[in-house]
Amino acid sequence: MGKTILQSYPRRIVFELTNSCNIKCVMCRRNYTKFPSSQLTLNQFLWFKDLFHIVEEVTLMGMGEPTIHPDFSKMLKLLDQTPVRKYFCTNGMLLGELEDTIFKYHVDLIAISINGASAKTNNYLRTGSDLEKIANYIKSIGSRKKNIRSQWPHMSFIYCLMKSNLHELLPCITLAQQLGVNRVKVVYFTAFTEELIKETVWGMEHEVQRVFREAEELSKRLEVELKLPNISRQDSTDTVSHRDCSIPWRDLFVGADGMIRPCMTTSETLCSLDMTKSFFEIWNSDKFIFHRKNVNQVRNMSSCCVNCYQESICNWNLKTSFLQDGNQIPLRGENRTFYG
Questions:
Q1: How far apart are the first and last CA of the chain?
Q2: Which of 52, 83, 201, 248 places its Cα 20 to 30 Å from the Cα of 234?
Q3: How would you class 190 by CB atoms within 10 Å of its CB: exposed for 0-12, middle for 13-18, buried for 19 or more?
């Protein structure tokens, strides 16, 4: 409806529990800008406890690896006392340690980020990752699901598509089927440094289209759900900065530093998590209202929205969606005020 002051709640709360990580991925923005380490406190998380009975989903993901947060299991336990859907995104390296917790607290959705179907490719692009270990952890979770006759947790691969791993997308779908992973979601790699521009698939549209066509055929045959991004230069968004964005109405994103942000792809801030205020004072803060008013206005949207690379919103016809070098958005800790 385009309302800027809301009486409704978000459908989802996204918590970036930490901006630290236990591996180092070649494509991650964390590697190219210095920023202070920060971690959401349990008290900050608990401030939202009444909302866990209202919103549809709580998602644990962000710039860092959520499973390394010391209170990760406590947070899942708290969420399990409510009807909310529980989802976290992980690099998978701690899934073995967390298997009992996952089933004890009835995690609904787990997304595991990988960058190759072979250990050689994945472990090269994700230093500190071990695809063989991750596969064994996933297999163990899948076996346990079968033993207790449960469909949950629903598991998916998040596959960041680069020139180096385009050829392993089809084997990734096969791997998913073998391990009992329900879904493969493909996202494009966006380069934030000049040296990594060569890894983007910008300009490879014909090759990408061929691989995507074969991937769709294989996923149907193996009964693995597949979600692909739009082909660049064929995106229905045409020439605008991004398709209509619903995130300011649908999601509340809470950064590890306690700052409320428009989404997880920017460090520009809307307001701080002031626990002396009510939820609606934050949800309808001046900058949040202003953001809802302008996020889909070509002339007035923030610079981070002009250069949107949020995978579900951005325009893949634009070169800037793939190449952000020289037009970088500040990282966590810089806290540049939204809209200047």
A1: 27
A2: 248
A3: buried
Answer whether 123's CB lies under 8 Å from 131's CB.
yes
Can you give the pLDDT at residue 338? 39
Q: What are phi and psi of 178, to 5 degrees?
A: -65, -35
CA–CA distance, 124 with 129 (Å, rounded to integer): 8
pTM: 0.93
Strand spans (E) along 162-285 = 183-188, 225-227, 251-254, 259-261, 271-272
What's the pLDDT at 336?
41
Return the pLDDT at 303: 84
As averages over each run of 10 residues, the pLDDT of the chain (340 residues) reads 95 97 88 82 98 98 96 98 98 98 98 98 97 98 96 97 97 98 97 89 96 98 97 88 94 97 90 97 97 93 88 90 66 41
Q: Distance (Å, rounded) from C-alpha 61 to C-alpha 89? A: 5
Give the model's pLDDT for residue 92: 98
Report the C-alpha gap between 304 and 328 in whole angstroms.
9
Q: Which amino acid is at 107?
A: V
Closest CA to 338 of 269, 283, 285, 258: 269
Rounded Cα gap, residues 245 and 231, in angstroms: 19
64: burial class by Cβ within 10 Å (0-12, 13-18, 19+)? Answer: buried
User: Residue 87's beta-bridge partner residues?
Assistant: 59, 109
Are 336 and 203 spatial neighbours (Cβ–Cβ below 8 Å)?
no
C-alpha to C-alpha distance for 76 and 88, rounded to whole angstroms: 10
b/e string for 9-39 if b means 16 or more Cβ within 10 A? Answer: ebebbbbbbbbebebebbbbbbeeeebeebb
φ/ψ (deg, to 5) at 11: -80, -25
